[in-house]
Amino acid sequence: MLESMELSGENMTRPASRDCTLVIMAKAPRPGMVKTRLAESFPTEAITELYRCLLFDTIALARSLDDVDVAIMCPAADVEELTRTAGEYVHVVAQTGDGLAAGLTSVFAKFASVGHRRVIAFNSDSPHLPASALKRAFEALATCDLVIGPTHDGGYYLVGATAFYPRLFTNDSMGTKNALQALVAQGQSLGLVSRLMDPFYDIDVAADLSRLAAELPLDPAKAPRTAVWLEEWAQTVAQLRTRTAEL
Length: 247
Prior knowledge:
38% of the residues lie in helices and 16% in strands.
């Protein structure tokens, strides 16, 4: 069963202390391995640094939440580098298997199998998401089995659950344009009560970066490292914005 929920809704249950775990889905910021769809617009080194900034700001956003444990799930080869990046307060865990479906399955196998905890997997490129959105996603898990934060391109920026469902994520449901639809359908097939959060956007393509460049200067504290990167590459981003507007 799928229900719609506004982020501005009231009378939500407050998460219990330390009942919540936020797991950031991340990769080590290595050239040619991250944000590859921006490669036509920026040098590889610049894209790598952008991802590093997004990741740092995402970790800061996660750690700003009260009574929430923070972890990172990543490919096994990235654990050492991300452990240095994340610092001592963020637990870095190697996923089992390859790809996003395996990573998401690993999140809930690892964290939701150790008790009735509310677990949310969150992408590493939406540090501009209001912290209140993450709080309300945790609150939603007090009254449903599955919570999903949809992106405007047909994917999702977060997914949360209170238990481990081994068949929830599959490799053939990871395509950006149908990922959300596939996840909702799979949740329904498993008999889960699901709720959708408000749509948001992550940073995948030039249009996303142009949008962020227009919005973040109004409140750079949301993602300060990313804001500095955008200032350094302002001219290129402005050209992207002009190109996007002409399409």
